[in-house]
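Table S2 (text version). Query chain:
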Amino acid sequence: MSQIDFFALGGLGEDGKNMFVLEIDNAIYILDAGLKYPTDELYGVDAVLPDFSYLTRNQSRIKGIFLSHGHEDHIGAMPKVLKEFSVPVYGTYFTLALLKDSLQENNMKPEDYTLNTITKDSVFAFNNVTVSFYQTTHSIPESIGMAFDTEDGMIVYSPDYTFDQNVEAAYKTSFERLANIAQKKVLAFLSESLGAEHGQQSQTSKSLNHILDQAFLKAKGRRMVVSTFSTDIFRIQKVINLALKYDRDIAIIGRKAQRMVDIALNLDVLKIPEHKLRKLKFIDENNQNTLENTLVLVTGERHEPFYMLQRMVKKQDRLIHLNQDDKVILMTPPVPGTEKIAARTLDVLYRHDINLLNIDKKMLLPSHANSEDVKLMLNILNPEHFVPVIGEYRHFYAMKKIGKQMGYQDRNIHLLDNGEVLRFKGGQLTKQTDRIKHGDVLVDGILDSDLSDVVLKDREILSQDGVMLVIGHIDAKRKKIVDQPEIISRGFVYMKDSEELIKEVIGIFDDVSAEIMQRKYVDWRLFKERLREDISKHLFKTTSRKPIVIPVLIDVKQ
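Corresponding structure-token output:
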């Protein structure tokens, strides 16, 4: 009798950090390994990764990691994973190209790892499990869904998809592959949920094409600046095609920095005739980059397009200075965590009277399945069990409503949390109370550096109450204070207005020093702990604030 366990180490009840696990009998199959961008309260954190210690302990049972597409929320944790253990990786050519670049950025050699290129027609057999794929429509090329054929039925994983029919062939859903999968029994359907709250879109990509076409037509001869996210290759190509239609040259700001765009150009996934690409020189007295009849494409991730536009309009950018003759088109709707900088960018652009077209978010077709897309997929696959993945709980709740509209009973719709196990034995759902260890790994700059809660707490205190340094010079041999301690405050109090408080801190330093000097030897650790504790208590008592107190004791030999 076969046993199938499904659980998530990330990606359930959150936006990002997608990492799902299928355990089929004794074999482990990993579906994606992504990161999540930090929220504002995670001071200095660059990325949040899933805690995959469970996989590290069971790496001998892992058959492979299967990557659906090249967005960071699905492959961003891969360098960290491959540093911990090396197992076969499966992904499309473009997805693996992005992964290789990420490995190189982390000083890892791609040739040291087993990276298997797949297409929608690939099939891999692992003992009693066969894995096949199908192409999905998403904002990045070569996105795939996958199906795991077990003796008890198919497990279909369908991340980040839509059924938009107005796309180029490279982005079209491979319905023939889906039809082949649907011919067999589908035990469980694991569907993305981020767009489930939205119904059928009233607008189509043709409407957006018309708006953009009119903007290009009216801006004839003038410089155009268009902002897009570098992760949205489909939208970038749409703008480029319009530029070519109106015989514009094309300059890409941040092309070297935004590796995804650069890789897409190198692999001909993003198509721009070489003679139409313009390389920009820095602005100086002889070069202003006026670029008449040129499209300037501003790309980046999350906050970067907004930041670059602000620099351009404030004349701080080294390549482009915006003026009232330019036509600026914003195709970067705010994403979670960028709402403030997006609003501030609009304020700055309007304040400088920039000729601006801000494309309404409703016009920018989402790259995630809406309710009608999910219903269509349910009708095609007709799964026994429906499992929402990739999204926050409100998305899962919307998915549950969709499932019930389609006739599914509560017992066949499974809203899971990270670490919660969904188990099938012999094709039958069984009750399972065990939970798999999961959590967040916080990365600060260097991939190998995981931040502790203590460090984050210190950063929070620094942001709110500041820091006070107490620097003392001690002659430990003679047990004597050499000079009056130096007090430095940053983000806590203004020194000139707090002379009385500083005198009190110096008094505490003298009292603690006198006590420590009575001992046979100077205990430096105890000395610092007493200073930190006594000064912190006094500061809170007098100011109701808790700055970080850092004693710095220097042994001076006279």
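Notes on Table S2: The mean pLDDT is 87. Residues 205-358 form a domain with the Rossmann fold fold (CATH 3.40.50.10710).
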